[in-house]
Amino acid sequence: MTTPLTAATAAATTNPIFISTTTLNTLLSHKTLISHFQSTLPNATLSLSTPPRHSLSTSPNSSLLLMPSFSTSPSLPYTGVKIVTSHPQNSSLNLPGIHACYTLFDSLTGQTLALFDATELTLYRTASVSGLASSYLSNVDANVFVMVGAGNLAGHLIKAHLCVRPGISKVFIWNRTAEKAVALAEKLTQEGGFEGVSFESSGCLEEVVKLGDIVSCATNSESELIKGNWLKEGAHLDLVGSFKPSMKECDSEAIRKGRVYVDNDIALEEAGELVSAFEKGVISTDGICGNLVQLIKGEKIGRKEQKEITVFKSVGSGVVDILTAQLVYETVTRDPAAQH
């Protein structure tokens, strides 16, 4: 009697498939990915081994990141690695600052299953992690959303938060280069599909942050953008941009005022906002209220009161990369026509 092959092993007998950005966009939505993370993250964190992200400075302003993850669980028989380049100066060239590729292997045989243009994959998974956290941490009646930064991730973050907080009716976008904020607001307005939502650019960061029920930041800033005393009662602050101690998007007052959660515990070492607050004695590591998996499992309580301020700091991990790759790959192998 032969042992049934897993979907991954069976597919590995054929040539690896390439999943383009175009294909990825037809297969993924923020809503389905948020749901996938909610149902799979708790078990995945038990079965996956995810070594710390390896970050190399390739120039004073550029980085190369290596993010591996692997599992031998029958329910997740994959090994994956993402290679990311970060070139913030690309904004002056009108190019994305982040580029990435992802390779998915069968963890039982080591065979290559799929190659992804993972720039878009990274945007989807980062935004969906923030959206999922927001479902536990932001007020259910959130109405005003503030997007700080107008890069490629910004549109994804707006859409992910709208998935979990459909009551949002006004989105303000701020960017250091005002023209980019204007362009993103116009793009989202023309794109449609956001019934009852208005998109506006703003030239005054302080003014719009003071209005925000949810404030999401996706920048490469190495200086504090968001001041804690700007945050309104009941606000949720979503910090996505920093991934090394020299980067920070808010001051230590915002960390002090908020109940702080992280996507994973590596954030305590990598996030400049937290590292700085720890060094100043504003908060200790024991003051971090929990991580995303603990929120999903109910081991930690998210928002307790309507008036409190919450903070979510995300630095990313190989866990959400491989779960995103799993969802896309298994969708394609169930329906090969979806690849075209």
Please give the count of helices: 12
So, the CATH homologous superfamily of the largest domain?
NAD(P)-binding Rossmann-like Domain
Total strands: the figure is 14
**What is the overall shape?**
globular
Q: What is the H/E order? A: HEHHEEEEEHEHEHEHEEHEHHEHEH
Neighbour order of strands in the largest sheet: 9-8-7-10-11-14-12-13
For the sheet with most strands, the description reads:
8 strands, parallel
Q: How far apart lie the N and C ends?
A: 36 Å
Give me the Rg, rounded.
20 Å
> So, CATH architecture of the largest domain?
3-Layer(aba) Sandwich
Structural class: alpha/beta
**How many domains?**
2
Tell me, rounded to a whole number, the average pLDDT: 91
Q: Tell me, what is the CATH class of the largest domain?
A: Alpha Beta
Q: What is the helical fraction, as a range of percent?
A: 25-40%
How much β-strand is present in the residues? 15-25%
CATH domain fold name of the largest domain: Rossmann fold
Describe the model:
With 340 residues, the chain is of the alpha/beta class. It folds into two domains: 129 residues, 2-Layer Sandwich (ornithine cyclodeaminase, domain 1), CATH 3.30.1780.10; 189 residues, NAD(P)-binding Rossmann-like Domain (Rossmann fold, 3-Layer(aba) Sandwich). Helices cover 36% and strands 22% of the residues. An eight-stranded parallel β-sheet has the order 9-8-7-10-11-14-12-13. It has a six-stranded mixed β-sheet with strand order 1-6-5-4-3-2. Helix 6 links the parallel strand 8 and strand 9. Helix 3 packs across helix 4. It is globular, with a radius of gyration of 20 Å.
